[in-house]
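Per your request, structure below.
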């Protein structure tokens, strides 16, 4: 499919994660979007024999989230020996440590929140181009504090980082689904409706087995009480590195708002005072675990 076809394709509903992984059983009746740029068939028809790196512990979290090259594996494990990117652009309080997350999984999650852009990845910018120019109200990204660095730190210069190029080929940014595999599930995925639905289904099977040997539940029995109105959403301001908040979702399972930024970074804020009263009525123990970002 040409990019001009995507230009006229409008997003009317959230993406179907099962369609992207090739497991949606509903077809045209699905409540999620089956966008052509999320189709698994793109993998078989890709033009280049390439997959995004899916190896853990090859980069720090900040470089992963920005989809940039990272030389953290050539440095010590502590944050006092940061990668070159964090050294020059991480800011005064940067904590640079190796991450278990992969480029593949990060790129997938960024892709899935960019429906307004046709599910393509952000265009590559030189590291130096991310610094605000003269007149910008936001503070420019600065070097890490020297006193926080290991003695004799060595790494690439800013010029070398610019010359090093993109971590991803341009064709991956333009059509990421063709070069990605479904990501490993993380703690955040376990609060998504699809995971909760599957968890409820498994629990019902377990309960049905127990009931057949002792008693049967009444037909009117329910394990879910009506929820009260969720707390108001306070939209966070624009973030220097991650842009505007493009979507906000409230999850009763963990009692908090989830905010997705233009860059794909996800944060959570607040906990509902109703959580303790309603969480026992839900299936599973959905403990709040901050998302990476």
């Amino acid at each position: 499919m040409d990019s001009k076809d995507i230009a006229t394709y409008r997003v009317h509903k959230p993406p179907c994660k099962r369609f992207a992984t090739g497991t949606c059983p509903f077809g045209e009746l699905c409540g999620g979007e089956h966008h052509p740029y999320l189709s698994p068939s793109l993998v078989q028809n890709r033009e280049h024999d390439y997959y995004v790196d899916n190896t853990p512990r090859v980069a720090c979290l900040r470089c992963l989230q920005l989809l940039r090259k990272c030389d953290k594996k050539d440095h010590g494990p502590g944050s006092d020996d940061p990668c070159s990117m964090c050294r020059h652009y991480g800011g005064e309080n940067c904590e640079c440590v190796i991450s278990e997350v992969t480029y593949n999984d990060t790129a997938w999650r960024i892709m899935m929140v960019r429906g307004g852009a046709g599910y393509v990845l952000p265009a590559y910018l030189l590291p130096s181009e991310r610094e605000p120019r003269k007149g910008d109200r936001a503070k420019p990204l600065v070097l890490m504090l020297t006193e926080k660095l290991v003695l004799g730190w060595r790494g690439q210069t800013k010029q070398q980082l610019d010359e090093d190029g993109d971590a991803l080929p341009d064709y991956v940014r333009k059509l990421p689904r063709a070069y990605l595999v479904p990501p490993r599930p993380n703690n955040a995925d376990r609060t998504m409706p699809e995971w909760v639905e599957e968890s409820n289904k498994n629990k019902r099977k377990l309960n049905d087995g127990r009931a057949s040997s002792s008693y049967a539940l009444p037909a009117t029995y329910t394990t879910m009480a009506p929820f009260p109105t969720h707390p108001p959403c306070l939209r966070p301001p624009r973030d220097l590195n991650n842009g505007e908040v493009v979507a906000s979702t409230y999850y009763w399972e963990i009692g908090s708002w989830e905010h997705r930024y233009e860059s794909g970074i996800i944060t959570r804020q607040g906990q509902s005072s109703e959580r303790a009263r309603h969480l026992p009525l839900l299936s599973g123990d959905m403990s709040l675990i901050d998302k990476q970002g």
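Residues 207 and 213 are 10 Å apart (CA to CA).

Regards,
D.
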